[in-house]
Write a structure and sequence with these properties.
The structure holds two protein chains of two kinds.
Chain A lengths: L2 E12 L2 E12 L3 E5 L6 H8 L7 E6 L2 E2 L5 H7 L1 E3 L12 H13 L4 H8 L3 H20 L15 H13 L5 E5 L7 H17 L3 E5 L3 H7 L2 E6 L2 E6 L1 H6 L1 H8 L5
Parallel strand pairs in A: 3-8, 3-9, 6-7, 7-8
Antiparallel strand pairs in A: 1-2, 1-4, 4-5, 9-10
Chain B lengths: L1 H23 L2 H26 L7 H19 L7 H23 L5 H19 L19 H23 L2 H11 L1 H6 L4 H27 L9 H14 L4 H18 L3 E2 L2 E2 L1 H15 L12 H9 L1
Helix pairs in contact in B: 1-6, 2-6, 2-9, 2-10, 2-11, 3-4, 3-5, 3-9, 4-9, 6-9, 7-9, 10-11
Classes of the chains: A alpha/beta, B mainly alpha.
């Protein structure tokens, strides 16, 4: 199994707080890796460093054997990493279709002169590109049964569908690695069940590797191939779900030490 | 085919209006009409960056000044006050303003919201103060004896052409990939960045386009009046441009034109409204603006464009 993403010795400091402290982990190709830990463990910070929002003080991130440590957020996406957010960040006043279009068009329109002139003069090539792009996005929406909402504002969707749309939008950038930041946050039991199915489905359908941050232990234990546990910025465990469940250190991190 | 038909009808209407203005109306109304077009171009230019991309700029008077001085100096010093070459000067004004816009955008687009407004305002003031102290272009006395348009029809045709080009460029861009990128930045720049969009670059590009048209508007303004001074490009002008764009609806291009029409003609119409010696204009005008803010905070058209079809549907109901 080849390693898709390798994170080595990753550290970042905010003032006096070492939010992430020499964390090492890797993700194999077509693996579903869970990243868990108590509140404030540094999970989202790790996400933000990988996706280019924070610059790591130390350490390196390699994606497909390319160093992406210095890349900006948009460059990281061009390498093939897409992410969603803990608190939904849709383009609220754009339609569902437009949300996906924005994501999908970044590969098609690079801002070349031809690009500019064809859109200024509305040439037939431009129209064709637009129609193809739109069809592509509609097909993607159809897979997730969101195509009936295509012309609706993203903000008018129900909560679960908004979460779904955020995943669809990330998929529209054609990623190799999808990073989901607490996709089950704010969902009830039934919605979480559906999410469980959805994540498995997209993993197979799009041949993806997934990095998942989640607090819902049932979900994590259920679908993850392997789990990395963070506590106070440090990695404390790395292994199969069953090993994690019985690891004394993990239990201590979550529940505290047993009085003896 | 219908597209060509549309353009022909448009051309007939425009030339009809021009002939009407030229032969049946006095030079007072003609001048107001031209300033309406200048206002519309400036508002469109601002709307492109503030309305579509939500990047608040208060420096458009500065860009206008750069365009105006470039066009005026070029025509007077290098083109021998040739009236036929006025468009060349105006185009140069646009290009110099676009370049200035690019330079301004480099440091200032690290900021957003109110901070960006303050920085762009500062840039505009720098332009004004430089012009104020630059004796070669007249300093505080202003720059005069600029070639004016010899014929009303000439200035009218050129103005309408400029407005048409400005509007069409922005309209096409608004409904293209670039417009969608701007909307995405407007809605959530972090999410846009994650989708692989280079937000900083896109904002800079939008600002350069906006600056270009602000420069065109400025260049035309110089040749329309024949006299410019640093005082004509003060802070208040930036605010007036902003009022037009906001009234029309931030993000609505046709809204900007309609608002420019209203806000240019309204003060002139109200000029005749007098109660004894009290000038009611200064009371009615702000009241109208306040009412507008209360009743339609999103502007006349919000983000949508004026659309004959939907207008018909609304009235036939």
């Amino acid at each position: 199994m080849s390693k898709l993403l390798v994170v080595e010795n990753l550290s970042i400091q905010f003032g006096g707080l070492k939010a992430v402290d020499a964390v090492n982990f890797h993700i194999n190709k077509s693996e579903l890796l869970g990243l868990i830990g108590p509140n404030g463990a540094g999970k989202t910070t790790v996400f933000n460093i990988i996706s280019g929002f924070y610059k790591a003080d130390e350490g390196s991130i390699n994606f497909e054997e390319q160093d992406i440590t210095p890349a900006s957020a948009s460059e990281v996406n061009h390498h093939g990493l897409a992410r969603t957010f803990q608190n939904i960040r849709l383009f609220k006043n754009l339609t569902v279709l437009e949300n996906v279009l924005v994501a999908a068009q970044q590969r098609k329109h690079n801002g070349s002169l031809i690009d500019w002139f064809s859109s200024l003069f509305n040439t037939s090539t431009h129209k064709n590109v637009e129609i193809n792009l739109e069809n592509e996005c509609l097909e993607l929406l159809k897979i997730f049964e969101l195509d009936k909402f295509a012309k609706e504002m993203a903000s008018s969707l129900p909560y679960g569908a908004q979460r779904k749309l955020e995943i669809v939008r990330a998929l529209a950038t054609k990623p190799k690695l999808l990073m989901l930041d607490e996709p089950a946050a704010g969902m009830n039991h039934q919605e979480t069940q559906e999410l469980n199915k959805l994540i498995r489905f997209i993993k197979d359908k799009f041949n993806l590797t997934i990095l998942l941050i989640e607090h819902d232990m049932k979900l994590v234990m259920n679908i993850c191939d392997r789990i990395v546990v963070l506590n106070r910025g440090k990695k404390i465990a790395d292994g199969m779900p069953d090993d994690i469940k019985s690891s004394a250190e993990v239990i201590e991190a979550y529940l505290g030490k047993r009085k003896t | 085919m219908s597209q060509i038909k549309k353009y022909i009808i448009f051309l007939i209407l425009v030339s009809g209006l021009g002939l009407l203005l030229n032969y049946f109306l006095n030079s007072y109304i003609q001048a107001i009409f031209i300033s309406f077009i200048i206002n519309a171009i400036m508002a469109l230019s601002l709307n492109f960056i503030t309305g579509l991309a939500d990047q608040f700029s208060l420096g458009h008077a500065g860009l206008m000044a750069i365009g105006a001085y470039t066009a005026a100096v070029l025509n007077k010093e290098f083109l021998d006050n040739n009236w036929a070459l006025i468009p060349v000067g105006v185009l140069a004004g646009g290009m110099v303003a676009a370049f200035a816009g690019y330079l301004i955008s480099l440091p200032s687009f690290r900021l957003k919201g109110d901070y960006l407004a303050i920085v762009t305002l500062g840039m505009a003031e720098i332009v004004r103060v430089v012009l104020l102290n630059w004796n070669h272009v007249g300093g505080p006395r202003g720059y005069n004896a600029i070639m004016k348009f010899p014929e009303f029809m000439y200035s009218y045709a050129f103005a309408v052409l400029l407005l048409f080009i400005t509007f069409m460029t922005m309209y096409r861009l608004k409904f293209s990939w670039f417009g969608r990128n701007l909307w995405a930045i407007n809605e959530d720049d972090i999410a846009a960045e994650v989708m692989g969009l280079n937000v900083a670059k896109t904002k800079r590009r939008a600002f350069v386009i906006s600056s270009f048209f602000a420069g065109l508007g400025g260049g035309f303004y110089a040749h329309h009046l024949g006299y410019i001074s640093p005082g004509s490009f003060g802070f208040i002008i930036s605010v007036q441009i902003l009022i037009v764009a906001v009234l029309g609806g931030l993000g609505s291009l046709s809204g900007s034109i309609v608002a420019a029409l209203i806000l240019t003609f309204l003060p002139e119409i109200l000029r005749s409204v007098q109660m004894g010696s009290v000038d009611l204009r200064m009371i009615i005008y702000p009241i109208l603006l306040i009412l507008m803010m209360i009743l339609r905070p999103q502007g006349l058209f919000g983000r949508t464009e004026l659309n004959l079809k939907s207008l018909k549907e609304r009235f036939s109901k």
